[in-house]
Design goal:
single chain, 88 residues, alpha+beta, binds zinc ion
Length: 88
Amino acid sequence: MAMKMKAEDVVESGEIAFAEMRRLGFDAGYDSVFSDGNGVELDWCEPCFRDTLGAWLQVRTPADTPLAKMLEAFKPEVHGDELPPVKK
Ligand SMILES: [Zn+2]
């Protein structure tokens, strides 16, 4: 696996820090600054990721997920065995 990252973030699989590495990736779309169809990837450790992009991150707690909201709204006596629709 080819990984390009900050020098201090280079870790080997098997090291504990390897489990803390995060990869973001997407395929660039039409008229993208990365050129149409190119794959873009980023591998960083979580502290560097947070320190660099934290101002723009949206971090949700598990209770904020759509599934958690559905489960919270679930009342067996009202909904039977069907989950209620999620309110946005
Ligand atoms: Zn780092």
